[in-house]
């Protein structure tokens, strides 16, 4: 029988559950998963989110004893991938590696967003966090945040800073730095991560906020210089880079979180099973080590904790977006 027919029968069966009683839910959940799963990530292969998805996805597939494929649907700061999963069948087979940009920042920033994460998605677990680095081209004479701010205030014009897209954490990080340090900023929104990285290295922009996961290799390779981290403490990967608090700007303290989501309406027993196996995958020693080495803080939270986090982050970023006056459409 074709897979879409199987999925349709399962969904029709779910619709009849109120008549059949809860044992039918348990029976269906016990058979899950009986076919291939898909984990969608809204960014290209080789990027930080893709690394997270592949490391966790491989182990999750092993835990579930099923093939799990990674579906890269890049574009619009993660919104394309998020929309795809939000509109998928709520059967547990289509999952999303969601992040702060497409889940918490996009709803207040884009009035015509084609999905509603609060209504159409259910969070399973927060898996990792990524802090950010303020970086400048390696050829820049600026060595500290104080020097960057002084140069920005004396520029006589808006300071151009690269972002990986309008409405992304790096975009609002630039706005946050602008507000806290008191200089005007001109965000330059690049269509892809690769284009933004190329612009930073080439010196086409004065600076940018990049995730620690992305920046480590570029910095150690001598292509960028990091001035500060948004983390509360220095990164073990870059121990010579001070925090923004140490640099006199403690309110520049944002980070990017990553969590796995399923379409709203997915049966609770399936959500519970997925949460257990996701947490086990994240906490597996070999996965944890690789994630840490890649620059991430490893978590793996319970569903209730993840729900509280998403609600709090959505409220926080709504206030940030409102303060900037940004509208993406």
Textual characterization of the structure:
This protein has 329 residues and is an alpha/beta fold. The protein folds into two domains: 3-129 and 256-324, Bordetella uptake gene, domain 1 (D-Maltodextrin-Binding Protein, domain 2, 3-Layer(aba) Sandwich), CATH 3.40.190.150; 131-229, 3-Layer(aba) Sandwich (D-Maltodextrin-Binding Protein, domain 2), CATH 3.40.190. 47% of the residues lie in helices and 20% in strands. The protein has 14 helices and ten strands. It has helices at 3-15, 17-20, 22-31, 48-64, 79-86, 100-109, 117-120, 145-153, 169-181, 193-202, 212-220, 268-283, 285-293, 303-324; strands spanning 37-41, 68-72, 94-99, 121-137, 159-163, 185-189, 207-211, 224-229, 255-263, 297-298. Strands 1, 2, 3, 4, 5, 6, 7, 8, 9 and 10 form a ten-stranded mixed beta sheet that branches. Helix 4 (48-64) links the parallel strand 1 and strand 2 (68-72). Helix 6 (100-109) packs across helix 14 (303-324). It starts with a helix and ends in a 5-residue tail after the last helix. Mean pLDDT is 91; it is low at 1-9 and 11-22. InterPro entries: BUG, Bug_dom1. Keywords: Signal. Residues 1-29 form the signal peptide.
């Amino acid at each position: 029988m074709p897979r879409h027919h199987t999925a349709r029968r399962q969904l029709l069966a779910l619709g009849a559950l109120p008549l059949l009683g809860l044992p039918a839910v348990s029976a269906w959940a016990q058979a899950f998963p009986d076919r291939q799963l898909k984990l969608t990530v809204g960014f290209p292969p080789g990027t930080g989110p893709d690394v997270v998805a592949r490391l966790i996805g491989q182990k999750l597939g092993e835990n579930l004893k099923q093939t799990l494929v990674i579906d890269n649907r890049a574009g619009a700061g993660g919104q394309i991938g998020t929309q795809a999963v939000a509109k998928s069948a709520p059967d547990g087979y289509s999952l999303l590696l969601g992040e702060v940009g497409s889940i918490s920042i996009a709803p207040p920033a884009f009035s015509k967003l084609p999905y509603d994460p609060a209504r159409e998605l259910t969070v399973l677990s927060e898996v990792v966090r990524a802090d950010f680095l303020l970086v400048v081209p390696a050829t820049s004479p600026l060595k500290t945040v104080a020097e960057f701010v002084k140069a920005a205030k004396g520029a006589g014009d808006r300071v151009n800073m690269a972002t990986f897209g309008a409405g992304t954490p790096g975009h609002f990080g630039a706005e946050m730095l602008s507000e806290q340090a008191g200089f005007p900023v001109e965000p330059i929104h690049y269509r892809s991560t690769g284009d933004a990285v190329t612009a930073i290295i080439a010196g086409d922009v004065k600076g940018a906020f990049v995730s620690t996961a992305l920046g480590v290799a570029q910095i150690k390779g001598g292509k960028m210089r990091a001035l500060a981290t948004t983390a509360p403490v220095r990164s073990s990967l870059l121990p010579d880079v001070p925090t923004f608090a140490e640099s006199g700007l403690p309110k520049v303290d944002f980070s990017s979180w990553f969590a796995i989501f399923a379409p709203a309406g997915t049966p609770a027993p399936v959500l519970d099973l997925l949460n257990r196996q996701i947490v086990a995958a994240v906490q597996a020693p070999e996965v944890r080590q690789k994630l840490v080495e890649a620059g991430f803080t490893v978590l793996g939270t319970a569903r209730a904790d993840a729900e509280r986090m998403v609600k709090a982050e959505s409220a926080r970023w709504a206030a940030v977006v409102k303060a900037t006056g940004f509208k993406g459409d």
